[in-house]
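Saturday, quiet lab. Running sequence design on the structure tokens for the scaffold JK sent over.
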């Protein structure tokens, strides 16, 4: 965590000093979320993510993309579903192979907005047993099909424990979605 601030400042400095081409956009898609559950007691929960981004093209081959994304996560168990939601701020560094294909990596910080267990008897609030922040690394890629419309896929793997009690679980989320650049 202590290394995130210098990395962010370095990227922000490069963006500020470069002659940048900025694109703004929106994104949405499907989440396949689970935890690093060694006992294999959980399965993936299918949910949604959506948000906005600003893409700063720094050089012909490099771009920086900060985002604001609402992400519904959690996991399914035999008799219940754990539903968690986060407001994430991904800081994404992209390598542009061509104008259409890009690889991406970065970090994201998320703030817990919901944690509840859904059972047949109703929903139970579990926010008190979850950490209020989540830090993840992300890796993925994307393809721009037209001047404005593209798809991307990412894997986010949590670095800190999602829960605040003695259970050591970390978020694991596949995100597959579409994005639309508003200005080009």
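Result came back. Writing it out in full:
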């Amino acid at each position: 965590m202590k290394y995130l601030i210098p990395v962010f400042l370095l990227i922000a400095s490069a963006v500020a000093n470069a002659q940048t081409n900025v694109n703004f956009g929106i994104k949405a898609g499907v989440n396949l979320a689970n935890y690093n559950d060694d006992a294999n007691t959980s399965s993936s929960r299918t949910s949604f993510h959506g948000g906005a981004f600003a893409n700063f093209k720094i050089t012909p081959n490099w771009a920086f993309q900060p985002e604001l994304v609402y992400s519904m996560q959690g996991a399914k168990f035999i008799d219940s579903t754990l539903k968690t939601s986060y407001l994430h701020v991904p800081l994404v560094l992209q390598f542009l192979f061509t104008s259409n294909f890009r690889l991406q990596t970065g970090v994201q910080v998320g703030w817990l907005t919901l944690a509840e267990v859904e059972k047949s008897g109703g929903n139970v609030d579990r926010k008190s047993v979850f950490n209020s922040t989540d830090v993840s690394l992300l890796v993925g890629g994307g393809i721009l099909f037209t001047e404005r419309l593209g798809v991307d896929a990412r894997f986010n793997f949590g670095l800190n424990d999602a829960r605040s009690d003695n259970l050591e679980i970390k978020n694991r989320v596949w995100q597959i979605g579409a994005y639309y650049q508003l200005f080009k």
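Notes for JK: The CA atoms of residues 66 and 91 lie 5 Å apart. The beta strands are 21-35, 45-57, 62-76, 81-96, 101-119, 122-125, 133-144, 149-158, 171-181. Ask whether to fix the surface positions before the next round.
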